[in-house]
Fold this sequence. Notes:
The chain is mainly beta. It is 4% helix and 56% strand.
Amino acid sequence: xxxxxxxxxxxxxxxxxxxxxxxxxxxxxxxxxxxxxxxxxxxxxxxxxxxxxxxxxxxxxxxxxxxxxxxxxxxxxxxxxxxxxxxxxxxxxxxxxxxxxxxxxxxxxxxxxxxxxxxxxxxxxxxxxxxxxxxxxxxxxxxxxxxxxxxxxxxxxxxxxxxxxxxxxxxxxxxxxxxxxxxxxxxxxxxxxxxxxxxxxxxxxxxxxxxxxxxxxxxxxxxxxxxxxxxxxxxxxxxxxxxxxxxxxxxxxxxxxxxxxxxxxxxxxxxxxxxxxxxxxxxxxxxxxxxxxxxxxxxxxxxxxxxxxxxxxxxxxxxxxxxxxxxxxxxxxxxxxxxxxxxxxxxxxxxxxxxxxxxxxxxxxxxxxxxxxxxxxxxxxxxxxxxxxxxxxxxxxxxxxxxxxxxxxxxxxxxxxxxxxxxxxxxxxxxxxxxxxxxxxxxxxxxxxxxxxxxxxxxxxxxxxxxxxxxxxxxxxxxxxxxxxxxxxxxxxxxxxxxxxxxxxxxxxxxxxxxxxxxxxxxxxxxxxxxxxxxxxxxxxxxxxxxxxxxxxxxxxxxxxxxxxxxxxxxxxxxxxxxxxxxxxxxxxxxxxxxxxxxxxxxxxxxxxxxxxxxxxxxxxxxxxxxxxxxxxxxxxxxxxxxxxxxxxxxxxxxxxxxxxxxxx
Length: 665
């Protein structure tokens, strides 16, 4: 099997999900980013095998994104081997912050494919349009209002998967006139415990969620329009097999009002201003676990108010973008412990002591066309952030470790980048450099005895942490000749004051069974490197082969490998597609994770390779359309886990699925 994997990975050395040839992708070659189109209502003939895939499945198709799995739901995205603290994850440019101290509710878990038009992924300082980051940005973008005067149309989606008895159903209703637009959609997902390879049930992997969104737009004039969006997302009975606790409720309300101006013949090409509010409630509990040392409830809340105003200007050979934005966030989390002896008193503490974050900043970018083939771009972001501890009890708890701690701290943040692009019809090359900073997250700065089951330590925040700082360099090149394409892309990050936990032997753990206590500290520096090679070949208009191979490396100044760094990876595919039918056989896998970090709780994960088969049909019914997507994942029913599976929880075994979408025009 290992020989088969290596032969196929060499033969079909690869095409990344972010390349130009994919029918479900768009590429803006003036930036070092990629755009994933959410083509839920269309037949995709490439690697997106299901019309009803979750947003997590979509994201995982990107070269640079890996999803950390703690269960069967709400995977945490990483970008360029950096986790969510180092990223700027937004929904249509809106800042939104999870309410879980254990990262069980990443921002991506509060939207669904039914809400979104596309996902923009940007590496490093190319991702600072909406906020500061070190590793990059993921922006989950909502569809714009459409004034096509086609009247009413709708679609119905249903899906079923054998593994976990997974059921999905969705409904979309849309009305469009000359001056008024309205769209309402909803989607429901429910899964029982899934099975790993060889029919091994993974307990506490069930979940249930529904997502409802409403979007409306009114055209004030030929150049002005007003839009309003509301998204309500609720997940219940969510099991997390990799963690000691489950989730009884994860609920979000996301709202916004937007004014847009567009005029291609004016100096100001577009001007978009948005006001938004979102609120999240997240409740962890272990009431469904049969045997726990001490029962706990851990609710958390996050409320965010914000705005942005973006202006695009074109003058001579300059293309300018300005974004003035700001937000106010309140994050609060608490823990109540219930002793097994009912005569003993309850124990209570604030794990996030009501942290108030106020931020305001400005972003500016200029793309200058040097010639018909060459463009140079530069961007800068400056911002001011204030953190305030709003809870007196929480402040006093942190003063146990930091006696001189005050309730407020100000930070100044900056970032800038520059890149050069040269593009010809059959090749292009781009390279860039950048510098960026980020403030510590709420957990890193103010967390109080947060248990991390990955390394089995309690964590305490450090309000005196310095801003994390990063220098980066990127290069990308693509070449095509006839039906053959090859490309390479690589990035390097040198991160100073790299924030990570360090053991404090003078402190005692609060969690029963924990190995000790870590306090967030800053390594002197850390280095992260990645490189991907991409190729594709079209034998005919209908038959093609493609895939990707990649290598990643991460090392800290303490000579320890950084945690959760992707090992050598590969994807290979043989595909056949016509306008009415598509089929693809895929092989994907990783080499063994030989550079693991036991210092940070990792262990070695073996190599694996998984075969998948997906097929699709389109049936036209007069003016309507019926789309089927069906196939089998993990054909060989392999039992495996990856480096990104928390505490080595196994992935799904063999899974047969079918999705059907009926589009009524």
